[in-house]
C-alpha cells in the first residue's frame, strides 16, 4: 500500500463519516438515562448494578429493536435536561403528561400504573377510604365524593411527595390549601421522614407503594386508600426521547407494542411489581 | 438570552433569600460562640479540655458537610429514642437540623481560625497589660480578644462566605432556600442554565455585601496601620 492510497482511504473515510450524520443518526448504539432509585421500576444494587422492571424490559426491547443499549444512571431532577444536553438518547420510566410533552417526545406507554398513598403504622392518620380499589379521576361522579372525604382527612396534615412529579401536582391541585406539601429528591428520603413521623402521609406510584412494605426496614409503612388514575397523574409510563429523534422513537414504539402483544410486559411487570401493568392499547 | 425568563426566575428565587440569610446568620452566630469555646479549650493547656476539642475539630473538618446534614436529619430521626426525647420538637424540623449541622461545622473551622488569632497576639502587649496591673479577665477582654479578632478577621471572612454558600446544602433536607427553589424551578422548566445563572448571581451579591462588611470591620480595627492624616504630615515636613 502506497502513501497515496492510504491518504485516499483516510479522505474517503472522513468524507463518509461526515456524510452519515447528515442523513440520519446511526442508532446501532443507544444510550439510555435511568434513575436507578425508583424500585421496583429501577434500582441500584449494593455493588452498583442496575436492576428492576425497566432493566429487564429494556433488555428485551433493545433486542427487538436490534440496538445495543447502554444504561446511564442519572439523578431524577436533572434527567430531562441531561437528555436534552445529549448525555443520553432516551430516558426510562417517565409518566406522560401535557407539560412534559411540550419539552420532549414519548414512545407509546410500556406500562399503565396508578398512584397511591402510604401511611406509617403509628402515624397520625389511621386509615383511608377505598383501600386498594381503583379510582379513575375522569369518572367525576365516583371520584368527587371520595376526594372530598380525603380532603377532610388530610386537613392540616403534611404530605410528602417527590419533587416535580405528577404526584406533587395532584396533591397541590386537590388539597393544596389544606395540607403542607413537603418535596423530596427521592422516594427513599420521603419514606425516612414518614417513618420518623416528620410527615403524616406519602403519595407515590402504586407500584412503588405496593412493593414498599416487603423491603427490610419498611415494615411500618403500608399502602392505603384508592389506587388513583387520571389527570394530572402521569400513570402511563413511557420512554422519553428528544423531539428531533423521531426515528429512534418509532424504533422503540414497535418494540414496545410487540412486547405488550406477546405477554412479555405482563411477565416482567408481574415479576417485579405483583401487578400486571401491560398498557391498554 | 431570554431576559423575561431570567427576570421571572429572579422573582421566584428571591423569596428564598431570607431563609438563606437566616440559616447563615444563625449558624455563624451560634458557631462563633462554640468556636471560641473550642479555641480556649485547645489553648487551655489541660489535656482533658485540649483532646476533646481536637477530636471534635478533626471529626467535623474531615467529613463532608453534606454527609453531616444527612446524618443529623435522616440519621437521628431513625431512632425511636430520639423521636421520643425532648429534642424531637427541634430535630423534627428541617430548619433546626440545618442550623445544627451548619453550626457544628463552622465551629470546627472557626475554632482553628480563632486559635491562630489568639496565638498571634504579641507577647509584649500581654506583658505590658500585666505590668499595668490588669486582671486575667480584663486582660483577655480588653487586649487579647480584640487583637485576636483583628488577626483572625481575614481568614474568618472567608469562613463567612463559605457559610453563605454552604446553606445551599440545606435544600437536600427539603428546605426551600435559594438553591432549593432553583432545583424546583429547574424540575418544572427544565432550564437549568438560566436558573443556575440567576441563583449564582444571588449568592454573588450576598457575598459581595459580606466581603464589604468584613473589609469595613478590618479597617475599623486597624487604625494604627492607616497612613496618618495629611495635614499632620505637612506640619512635620515644614519643620
CATH architecture of the largest domain in chain A: 3-Layer(aba) Sandwich
Number of helices of chain B: 12
| Unreliable residue runs of chain A | 15-23
CATH topology of chain B: MetI-like fold
Global mean pLDDT of chain A: 87
In CATH terms, the superfamily of chain B is MetI-like
Spell out the key features of this protein.
heterodimer, A: 281 residues, alpha/beta, D-Maltodextrin-Binding Protein, domain 2, 2 domains, 6-stranded mixed sheet, 10 helices, B: 239 residues, mainly alpha, MetI-like fold, 12 helices, flat
Describe this structure as you would to a colleague.
The complex is a heterodimer of chains A (281) and B (239). Chain A is of the alpha/beta class. Chain A folds into two domains: 25-112 and 235-273, Periplasmic binding protein-like II (D-Maltodextrin-Binding Protein, domain 2); 115-229, 3-Layer(aba) Sandwich (D-Maltodextrin-Binding Protein, domain 2). Chain A is 40% helix and 24% strand. In chain A, strands 1, 5, 6, 7, 8 and 15 form a six-stranded mixed β-sheet that branches. A six-stranded mixed β-sheet of chain A has the order 10-14-9-13-11-12, sandwiched between helices. In chain A, strand 2 and strand 3 form a beta hairpin. In chain A, helix 2 (53-64) packs across helix 9. The longest helix of chain A has 21 residues, at 3-23. The N and C termini of chain A lie far apart (59 Å). Residues 15-23 of chain A have low confidence and may be disordered. Chain B has 239 residues and is mainly α. Chain B has one domain: MetI-like (MetI-like fold, Orthogonal Bundle). Chain B has helices spanning 3-13, 17-43, 47-62, 65-75, 80-83, 88-91, 94-119, 123-131, 136-166, 178-189, 192-221, 230-238. Chain B is flat and about 70 Å long. Chain B starts with a helix and ends with a helix. The mean pLDDT of chain B is 92. Classes of the chains: A alpha/beta (281), B mainly alpha (239). At the A-B interface, helix 3, strand 12 and helix 7 of A face helix 10 of B.
Amino acid at each position: 500500500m502506497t502513501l497515496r492510497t492510504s491518504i485516499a482511504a483516510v479522505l474517503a473515510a472522513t468524507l463518509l463519516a461526515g456524510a452519515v450524520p447528515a442523513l440520519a443518526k446511526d442508532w446501532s448504539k443507544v444510550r439510555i438515562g435511568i434513575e436507578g432509585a425508583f424500585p421496583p421500576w429501577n434500582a441500584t444494587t449494593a455493588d452498583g448494578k442496575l436492576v428492576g422492571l425497566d432493566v429487564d424490559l429494556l433488555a428485551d426491547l433493545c433486542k427487538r429493536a436490534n440496538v445495543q443499549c447502554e444504561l446511564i444512571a442519572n439523578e431524577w431532577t436533572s434527567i430531562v435536561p441531561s437528555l436534552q444536553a445529549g448525555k443520553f438518547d432516551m430516558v426510562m420510566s417517565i409518566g406522560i403528561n401535557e407539560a412534559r410533552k411540550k419539552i420532549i417526545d414519548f414512545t407509546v406507554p410500556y406500562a399503565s400504573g396508578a398512584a397511591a398513598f402510604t401511611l406509617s403504622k403509628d402515624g397520625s392518620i389511621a386509615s383511608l377510604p377505598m383501600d386498594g380499589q381503583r379510582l379513575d379521576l375522569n369518572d367525576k361522579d365516583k371520584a368527587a365524593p371520595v376526594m372530598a372525604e380525603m380532603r377532610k382527612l388530610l386537613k392540616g396534615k403534611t404530605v410528602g411527595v417527590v419533587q416535580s412529579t405528577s404526584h406533587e401536582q395532584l396533591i397541590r391541585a386537590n388539597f393544596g390549601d389544606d395540607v403542607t406539601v413537603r418535596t423530596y429528591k427521592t422516594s427513599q428520603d420521603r419514606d425516612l421522614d414518614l417513618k420518623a413521623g416528620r410527615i403524616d402521609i406519602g403519595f407515590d406510584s402504586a407500584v412503588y407503594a405496593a412493593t414498599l412494605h416487603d423491603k427490610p426496614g419498611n415494615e411500618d409503612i403500608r399502602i392505603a386508600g384508592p389506587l388513583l388514575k387520571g389527570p394530572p397523574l402521569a400513570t402511563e409510563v413511557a420512554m422519553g426521547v428528544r423531539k428531533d429523534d423521531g426515528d429512534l422513537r418509532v424504533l422503540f414504539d414497535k418494540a414496545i407494542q410487540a412486547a405488550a402483544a406477546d405477554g412479555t410486559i405482563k411477565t416482567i411487570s408481574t415479576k417485579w411489581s405483583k401487578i400486571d401493568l401491560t398498557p391498554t392499547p | 438570552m431570554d431576559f423575561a425568563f431570567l427576570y421571572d426566575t429572579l422573582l421566584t428565587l428571591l423569596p428564598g433569600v431570607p431563609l438563606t440569610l437566616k440559616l447563615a446568620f444563625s449558624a455563624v452566630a451560634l458557631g462563633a460562640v462554640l468556636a471560641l469555646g473550642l479555641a480556649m479549650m485547645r489553648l487551655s493547656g489541660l489535656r482533658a479540655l485540649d483532646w476533646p476539642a481536637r477530636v471534635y475539630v478533626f471529626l467535623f473538618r474531615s467529613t463532608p458537610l453534606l454527609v453531616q446534614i444527612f446524618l443529623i436529619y435522616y440519621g437521628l430521626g431513625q431512632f425511636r429514642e430520639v423521636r421520643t426525647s425532648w429534642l424531637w420538637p427541634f430535630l423534627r424540623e428541617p430548619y433546626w437540623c440545618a442550623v445544627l449541622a451548619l453550626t457544628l461545622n463552622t465551629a470546627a473551622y472557626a475554632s482553628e481560625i480563632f486559635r491562630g488569632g489568639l496565638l498571634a497576639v504579641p507577647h509584649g502587649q500581654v506583658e505590658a497589660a500585666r505590668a499595668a496591673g490588669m486582671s486575667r479577665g480584663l486582660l483577655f477582654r480588653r487586649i487579647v480578644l480584640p487583637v485576636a479578632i483583628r488577626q483572625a478577621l481575614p481568614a474568618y471572612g472567608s469562613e463567612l462566605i463559605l457559610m453563605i454558600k454552604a446553606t445551599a446544602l440545606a435544600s437536600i433536607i427539603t428546605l426551600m432556600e435559594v438553591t432549593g427553589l432553583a432545583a424546583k424551578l429547574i424540575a418544572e422548566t427544565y432550564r437549568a442554565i438560566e436558573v443556575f445563572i440567576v441563583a449564582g448571581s444571588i449568592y454573588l451579591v450576598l457575598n459581595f455585601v459580606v466581603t464589604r462588611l468584613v473589609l469595613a470591620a478590618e479597617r475599623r480595627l486597624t487604625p494604627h496601620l492607616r497612613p496618618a492624616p495629611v495635614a499632620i504630615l505637612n506640619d512635620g515636613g515644614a519643620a
